[in-house]
Amino acid sequence: MDWWNEPSGSPHEKALRINLDARWYGTFAEIGAGQEVARWFFHVGGASGTVAKTISAYDMAVSDAVYGPTQRYVSRQRLEAMLDHEFGLIVERLDRIKGAERNFFAFADTVATRSYTRRQEGHGWMGLRFQHAPRQPPSELVIHVRLLDKEPVRQQEALGILGVNLIHGAFYLRDQPEQLIRSLLDHLTWERIEVDLIDFSGPAFTHVDNRLMALQLVEQDLTEAAMFTASGEPVQWAEVLYKRPVLVQRGSFRPYTNAALDVLEQAYAKFVQEPELQGESPVVLLEMTLRHLTTGDAVDHRDFLQRADMLRVLGKPILISNFRRFHRLASYLGRYTPKPIALALGASKLFEIFDESFYNPEEGGLLGGLGQLFKNRGRLYVYPALQKDTGCPLSVDEFPVADSLRHLYEHLRSNRYLVPLTPTDPEFLRIRRAEVLAMIQRGDPEWEAFVPPPIAAVIKRDRLFGYRPVEEPADSSAQPAGADGDRPPPGGAGVSPSGT
Fold first, then answer.
1. Are residues 185 and 310 in the same domain?
2. How far is it, in rounded angstroms, from Cα 369 to Cα 118?
3. Pick from 178, 299, 441, 443: CA 20 to 30 A from residue 30's CA?
4. Contact at 8 Å (CB) between 41 and 18?
5. CB count, 10 Å around CB of 356?
């Protein structure tokens, strides 16, 4: 098919546009899957206007000689070394000759695809360092990708298309980052690639909040989950979880209450005492699902950022996911660590976990799901909840499991796959996030008694969730009270702001 007859947004069309745009001039450095990205720019013609150099330092000794030694060759550390070296060289060698009218760039990727000797799924790092105007400080766009095709040649093909999409997006869509992210899947599908990290930095992206970009990856189905640090920096799963035990607190966190903190502290204290951890400190993640973030039919991005701002004081990585079912979360985390994975939650969530209709029969139904949930000696730390109809506590010991599941439930309980938590203060069970949120929004100062002091300080300082000082009139644009729903006390796990 001739390129001018291809659908708009094809890699051929994008590569040719860049080649014919006299502003861009740079280097392609690719390791591990051939030179699939550079190949597109040669294939479409006009490459002499764009390509200063291509290189593939494939041999490890050669790679170390060019870019310096590294512990892992498919890593962000290696990618950054490649970008540093190649961008520095092109500026050093060509700035005097072409620097006044050209925007220099360096594209790099380091990838492990399937091969005759390596049967694991493919993955890699890909990045672009570029000047958005001549002789301006560089900006950078970095992604981590999982290559899901079964055949090596298909993985290489997907990598080439993705690289063209990334370069084209950085050059022409940098002022529209949501559209840039969407364009990464042009002529690809989520069944072929997963992009689980994207990091924008530099003067071309001063308008971009990387926390929102992590959310966009999940919203736009480029990945099922993305992570960023408490300070808002994107981070890849393997960098954080590699061979570490993991403890997850799931919730809407709107706002973060004393009850949530009590779950956090108690679950952490129990988890670190488990013999399987052998004294190792677990990674603690705070997870919000799209379901927790959706108001009506859409995700409220402003509200999401307010929650992220509030949670910053806890100092823990934040996970954005599309996992409705707990066992899918545990299975995803299990890709990156063989160590125990624990979740802490309110007892009301046990209704979901032991509801057989909640599981896919093709994946083994409830037993298959529980097998994923409790793999690697996983555990659930269960905080009691007050039943709405009776006002009585619901706990691991009193949970009304179906008769057909009674023996299974008792097996899990007696073998400490289900571990009960005891509230530090019984009054914590009466805390409802929706009621606390309503108090914040109507200016009732009593709300501060129900949230940890560092959280209250952030809410007041940044006027989160519609907070206003008592003397100020109500803001008609504030979100309506109770928008978070009347949910049971939050479940979770982790450590307190003081690190306990």
1. no
2. 29
3. 178
4. yes
5. 13
Cβ neighbours of residue 157 closer than 8 Å, sequence gap 6 or more: 36, 149
- Kindly state whether residues 388 and 500 are assigned to the same domain: yes
Is the same domain home to 473 and 421?
yes
The CATH number given to whatever domain includes residue 164 is 3.90.950.20
Report which DSSP code applies to 487. P
pLDDT in tens, 263-321: 999 999 999 999 999 889 999 999 999 988 988 788 999 999 999 999 999 999 999 99
Cβ distance 241 to 337 under 8 Å?
Answer: yes
Query: What phi and psi, each to the nearest 5 degrees, are found at residue 296?
Result: 70, -120
pTM above 0.70, yes or no: yes
Report yes or no: 237 and 336 within 8 Å, Cβ to Cβ: yes
One domain for residues 234 and 278: yes
List the beta strands (DSSP E) in 210-324.
225-228, 234-235, 246-250, 283-289, 294-295, 298-299, 318-321
E strand spans, 303-450: 318-321, 341-346, 379-383, 385-386, 393-394, 418-420
Check residue 482 and give its pLDDT: 34
CB burial readout 78-110, b (16+ within 10 A) else e: bbbbbbebbbebbbeebeeeebeebbbbbbbbb
Q: Which stretches of the chain score pLDDT less than 50?
A: 1-7, 476-500
In the prediction, which pLDDT does 382 show?
A: 96
311 lies in which domain range?
A: 224-500
Nearest to 380 by CA among 471, 250, 192: 250
On whether both 406 and 465 belong to a single domain, the answer is yes
Q: For residue 405, give the CATH number of its domain.
A: 3.40.50.620
CA dihedral 128→131→132→135, nearest 10 degrees, is 180
Residue 331: other Cβ atoms inside 10 A: 18
168, 52, 75: which is closest to 126 by C-alpha?
Answer: 75
Tokens standing for 71? 């512990």
Alpha carbon distance 190, 184 (integer Å): 10
Domain count, the chain: 2
Cα 131 to Cα 103: distance, rounded to the nearest angstrom: 5
- Of 248, 268, 276, whose CA–CA distance to 339 is shortest? 276
Mark whether 252 and 333 lie in a shared domain. yes
Report the number of secondary-structure helices (H) and strands (E) in the chain.
17, 18
Contacts of 149 (CB under 8 A, 6+ apart): 122, 155, 157, 158, 192
Cis preceding linkage at 480, omega within 30: no
Give the residue from 232, 243, 256 showing the smallest Cα distance to 318: 232
Secondary element (H or E) of residue 212: helix 210-219
* pLDDT at site 387: 82
Single residue among 181, 208, 235 that ends a domain in this structure: 208
